[in-house]
Amino acid sequence: FGSINSMTANCALVDNSVILDSVVSTKKTGDPIVMEFESSIKKTLATVDEFNVSGNELTLSSKGTVVAKFR
To answer: How many other β-carbons are positioned within 10 Å of the β-carbon of residue 9?
Structure first.
């Protein structure tokens, strides 16, 4: 997807657990639909507590529920 803003977070990995802290982004403006999508991703990333890598796919989960997949 084409984003407007950049995001960053502090990250700690322990076994298959991940702690994402202080998810922040730049504050550029743009297409409202893209801005809402970015806001949703930021909120979702803040809930992630587990990850799994299988082949070329990264799966992020929150409380046992898959919330995002990246290839």
So the answer is: 16
Q: Show the beta-strand stretches assigned E in the chain.
A: 7-14, 17-25, 50-54, 57-62, 65-70
Task: Pull the structure tokens for residue 6.
Answer: 């950049």
Q: Residue 24: CB partners within 8 Å, gap ≥ 6?
A: 7, 8, 9
User: In the structure, how many helices (H) and strands (E) does the chain have?
Assistant: 1, 5
DSSP state of 32: H
Task: Indicate the residue type of 62.
Answer: S
CA distance 46 to 15: 19
How many whole angstroms separate alpha carbon 56 and alpha carbon 25?
26
pLDDT at residue 69 tops 90: yes
pTM, full prediction: 0.73
Structure tokens, 3: 């984003």
